[in-house]
Amino acid sequence: MTQAAFLSVLMIHLAAAISPGPSFVVSLRVAASEGFGTACALALGFGLGAALWAAAAMAGMAVLFELVPALFTTLKLVGAAFLMFIAVMMWRHATDQPAGPDTTSAPRSPASAIRFGFLTFASNPKTAIFFGAVFVGLVPAEASLGWKAAILAAVFVNETLWYIFVARVFSLAKPRAAYVRAKTWLDRGFGTLMAAFGLKIALT
Questions:
Q1: 16 found inside a domain
Q2: What percent of the chain lies above the pLDDT cut of 90?
Q3: CA distance 155 to 160
Q4: What is the pTM of this model?
Q5: Which of 67, 112, 156, 184 has its CA 20 to 30 A from that of 42?
Q6: HEC secondary structure over the chain
Q7: Any domain includes 101
Q8: Considering Cα of 165, then 52, then 79, then 139, what sign does the dihedral take?
């Protein structure tokens, strides 16, 4: 595998990571409502989820999905159900006051945030198809384990750093204050968006 091909995989994945999706919605909300530290742990979960699907694609998961459509359908429905669950929780708690640094509310633990981020990202098996399509064109079948490990590391770093950046922006005082003022309507809007993402995954 050439360095140019590696950089191509890196840039294509970065572009995909930046495009808005369920992870972006969750990251924005967690950063604004729970702060930078929790959102950073969430970003780590996203990175682990991305690395999981990239590894699955390299192991032939995308091909398996084509050979056993029922498996892909099952994973799609499970993932869609998880996103719909998040949407319902957003609506149910839309009127709750967000925890702030000066409250006595216990923040979400780092382990809990990592787990939530991982499950959110892993809920979309279509990511494996994306990675599979990219890898078929750019990663030679005979690529060494070193190159494959480098790709997984790059995917993890891309995803994690992007969402740490999102966390930094939306945990700042002004964006956070704007979120608090409009929390009810924003959470309902985010919940609706998450439900739409879930339906899209289930129906496509």
A1: no
A2: 24
A3: 8
A4: 0.76
A5: 184
A6: CCHHHHHHHHHHHHHHHHCCCHHHHHHHHHHHHHCHHHHHHHHHHHHHHHHHHHHHHHCCHHHHHHHCHHHHHHHHHHHHHHHHHHHHHHHHCCCCCCCCCCCCCCCCCHHHHHHHHHHHHHCCCHHHHHHHHHHHHHCCCCCCHHHHHHHHHHHHHHHHHHHHHHHHHHCCHHHHHHHHHCHHHHHHHHHHHHHHHHHHHHHC
A7: no
A8: positive
Tokens standing for residue 177: 């204050």
Q: Between residues 118 and 12, which one has the greater pLDDT?
A: 118
Domain carrying residue 143: 23-96+106-203
Q: What angle do CA 87, 91, 92 make, to 5 degrees?
A: 115
Asked whether residue 51 is domain-assigned, the answer is yes
Query: In total, how many domains does the chain have?
Result: 1
